[in-house]
Design brief:
homodimer, alpha/beta, Molybdenum Cofactor Biosythetic Enzyme, Chain A, Molybdopterin biosynthesis moea protein, domain 2, Molybdopterin biosynthesis moeA protein, domain 3, 4 domains, 6-stranded mixed sheet, molybdenum (chains A, B), molybdopterin molybdotransferase activity (chains A, B), MoeA_C_domain_IV (chains A, B), metal-binding (chains A, B), Molybdopterin molybdenumtransferase (chains A, B)
Chain lengths: ~425, ~425
């Protein structure tokens, strides 16, 4: 069980995991239930926008040719022959020196080819006539049919997350049923005999299980659904049984803990028992070096570290891209950006390190502020992090003002390309 | 009804709204239901972290004094007297030239004051003895009780959004019940006789209602709960009745549409009918100039424009800070940053404009890319926006590379200070 492990690079590890990527199936839901989903099909316009020539203001629709000679010294009275609230149309044709009162969003009546804003006319005889004293161009103040979007246009690509703007488009184009991706179901098992439940009092040598709850939130944030199988001790048979059950019921499995080389860390043996193929069991990074991934009949089994920080980083680097790809993202990888380090970070290290921190913005620059102790077992700084700085192995640390590589954690866009630490 | 309106600045408008800000009440939920909530109380550590002196590695616990003379040329054999899996403690005391095998996370046994990593020793007699040939300092490879967090420390402040890291802390410190803020209930009414339902086919002069669905998602994103009262036509009595009902059942009300100066836009009259105090009915900005806000017995009534873009911007500027403050945020305002414009934006305008777009990152710089047409009635660009550029009124537009003010839309942090366009 204590075999020698050969670390692979983060880049190789992500590449290996992504060899087993899959796309999800279609799941059509009612419009009212589509929040927080990912589009399985692109959104296409079922009608032009605007759907008809309409008025962008409250005003009066006229024929522009009737205003050709008008100026502040030369006004004409127009007869108000009708009015059009938004949502109504009329069949009357606007004739010479006639006008129709029109509300914002109202359809331009036949005959008219321009609108004058309400504020620019004066009313006469209780509104039966209005006086205009300016020249209007043909088409002035008209929002033309299809000028925003033509019918049939693909507006939003598949894989897009449904934010408020996307929701508005679905409504506009009549998607009373919305084709979503069926999110992956991810089985989650916490292992370790040191683990207490949240409600249990602390006992000597024990800690409360926090990893599975954290990972559960990470899964939801990334776009997956969680099947939680609870926390179990270090009994090998229990773990094998639960893993087999989860394999039948889920698309992927995550275990937390049980991946170190300690004698009670059974995960490698579990993989052997169920005939899963171990893809790697050591990654050249800190935290998270013991991250182990296996595959069984096309399903990935992620063995994340029992250490909270390592568990967190392992999830974001290896599991998130798999979930995003499943949901039809074209940019499944964690999004890398360059940022200026906002204070010295002198610590040298032979391993590639992922340092937690916060992005800050200042006068057009992006800054990275390392958060907290960043000891591998310090959970307190995870809550405040929205980014991870990458310190390549072998460097001597960094100075304030250095441009560093940073991965964004709270980002829906992602990256098409995997971040490559060799660059 | 067509009274003259006096526009106030965006700054004045936000300030006016925030005079009526309120904090939410406490709502204690089970740990498993706390996702997506905001903390009513700070998280405090109920125990030190680590809770006891523990081993960060798989290895052997020893007395450092026994290694004082060791080197690669001078080794000693240590007797392995016991072993400690994570989660267990032992009572045996480690004596001279004795050792206890210890797993990652295991409690340091009495007598020992250092740990040597498993990889650095050689085993003898089937593990009954190990050979050590290096000197260890007192405390070496020990994670000391409380070194990350002392008991009683406030770890996370009230008002914090529960992200995966916060969830981990709640679990670690035994929050089986979590004190959350009771989110505001926001009544939502869509008005306009031109509105069709999502499932209805398009008809002449009509459009499908998209605003209330968009705003509904914006409310959830900002941290509120929605009571949707449906869409109604332009009938004054219906609107008055529904508004009164919503006032009884909700903490705030949002209506979409009905705020223009068109004769069928009844909102000002609704406010008069129910004796609400109109705070303002015109803001010097585009889109969203007709945004109207009233107050009745301390409850705010937001009248957002029926135009999708105006509605969207009005929500983010005026409603979001009220929701965030309610949820105990210290940074309720939309977060402003400086960004470099990534292309010319020549359009001059007498009004302060909010231009939709995307943030981009490049070599440590933040760029702003305007998205789509940005016509006030173009809904298509809202879906792709994660930021709004502010163009102050009276400017002649901007050149590529100019540093511009940008408001972040998909941000949980916010800003303590309101963005001030006078600066």
């Amino acid at each position: 069980m204590s075999e020698k492990r050969n670390p692979i690079t983060v880049h190789q590890a992500v590449k290996t995991v992504m060899k087993w990527k899959k796309r999800g199936n279609k799941n059509v839901v009612n419009f009212s239930e589509c929040d927080d989903g990912y589009l399985f099909d692109p959104i296409c316009a079922d009608h032009p926008v605007p759907p008809f020539n309409r008025s962008p203001y409250d005003g009066y629709a006229i024929r522009s040719q009737d205003t050709e000679l008008l100026s502040s010294n030369n006004s004409i009275d127009f007869e108000v022959i009708d009015e059009i609230p938004a949502g109504h149309t009329i069949e009357k044709i606007v004739g010479k020196n006639q006008t129709v009162k029109i509300m914002t969003g109202g359809a331009i009546p036949p005959g008219a080819d321009a609108v004058i804003m309400k504020e620019l006319v004066s009313k006469k005889e209780g509104g039966k006539y209005i006086t205009i004293k300016r020249k209007l161009k043909p088409g002035e103040n008209i929002s033309f049919k299809g000028e925003d979007v033509e019918a049939g246009t693909e507006i939003i690509s598949k894989g897009t997350y449904i934010n408020p703007g996307v929701k508005a488009l679905l409504a506009t184009f009549g998607y009373s049923k919305v084709p979503l991706v069926k999110k992956p179901i991810i089985g989650l098992i916490a292992t370790g005999s040191e683990l207490l439940h949240v409600h249990e009092p602390l006992a000597p040598g024990k800690i409360r299980n926090s990893n599975s709850h954290m990972v559960s939130s990470q899964i939801k944030r990334a776009g997956g659904n969680v099947n939680y199988y609870g926390q179990i001790g270090d009994d090998l048979e229990d773990l094998v049984e639960l893993t087999q059950k989860a394999l039948l019921e889920c698309d992927f499995i995550i275990t937390t803990g049980g991946v170190s080389v300690g004698d009670y860390d059974h995960l490698p043996e579990v993989y052997r028992s169920i005939n899963a193929q171990e893809l790697f069991n050591k990654v050249a990074m800190r935290p998270g070096s013991v991250t182990t991934v296996a595959e069984k009949e096309g399903k990935l089994l992620f063995g994340l570290s029992g250490n909270p920080s390592a568990c967190y980083v392992g999830f974001e680097l290896f599991v998130r891209p798999i979930i995003r790809y499943w949901n039809y993202s074209d940019s499944p990888y964690v999004r890398p950006v360059k940022a200026y380090l906002n204070k010295d970070f002198p610590k040298a290290n032979p391993f590639t390190r992922f340092v937690r921190g916060e992005l800050q913005y200042s006068s057009g620059d992006i800054l990275f502020k390392p958060v907290g102790l960043d000891k591998s077992n310090a959970v307190s700084s995870l809550a405040k992090s929205d980014a991870l700085m990458i310190l390549p192995g072998g460097t001597r640390g960094y100075k304030k003002g250095n441009l560093v590589d940073v991965l964004l954690l709270e980002d829906q866009k992602g990256s098409e390309e995997m971040w490559d630490m060799r660059k």
